[in-house]
User: Fold this.
Amino acid sequence: MNIHEYQAKGILRGFGVPVPDGHVCYNSANAREWAKRLGDGPWVVKAQIHAGGRGKGGGVKLARTPEEVRDIARDMIGMTLVTHQTGPQGKLVKRILVEKGCNIAHELYISLLVDRNTSRVALMASTEGGMDIEEVAAHTPEKILVESINPLVGLTAFQCRKVAFSLGLDGKLTSKAVSLMQGLYQAFVSSDCSLLEINPLVVTAEEELLALDAKFGFDDNALFRQPAISDLRDYDEEDHKEIEASQYDLSYISLDGN
Ligand code: ADP
Ligand code: MG
Assistant:
């Protein structure tokens, strides 16, 4: 099961992972109100669909005034957004996230996933944030660092410092990175995740670390014990045949073609 970015950021906040202030909105008037409530601009308006690549597809836009937030929201809600992850038919945007824009100094990549080769959770990190990690893996695999996590010990501070060092972070940022990574690991384990990807994780001009995008994948076999996460399910984002199959506990995956 997947969730929206604003829901993912809500979970991360609960684990002490720094994310920009923001709020989900369903109409343009509400988007303008929330921009004002969030404080000074600029703001970023982000389409909430279960697919990445929104930036390149026109689903992430910068606004300088609350009125601009409203106008962008008006255009974005109801549009069909096509990205390299949605397929040519695209996805209808029904919700947007209005959040504070930040001054990005550089973009990094960090993720946790279940590594089937080692039967362990692995932490992956790269200096090539904001890009498709599949592309980085294909062309410059040396730019990806993988740390395998011992389930009995958990993610150690030593491992986090090693990753922070490989990301080129300095002393002050390293301690922030260690607590951020440990927050991510806690979120991953407590929520029965199969994937937790922060792309990009940014270093701001003010020397802060922020998770600017967040993608969660949950283990469907554990949803029975994760009622709070099951409640985040958005049926509009799923294939109707797969929804029906899931009601009968079937692992059914719709394919293209006829
Ligand atoms: P996607 O991965 O779907 O393209 P992201 O959330 O990663 O969407 O956003 C794409 C890009 O937009 C980011 O790499 C970042 O450069 C920029 N961006 C996103 N959110 C913010 C924000 N709050 N402030 C400033 N820039 C942002
Ligand atoms: Mg992203």
Q: What stands out?
A: The longest strand covers residues 104-115.
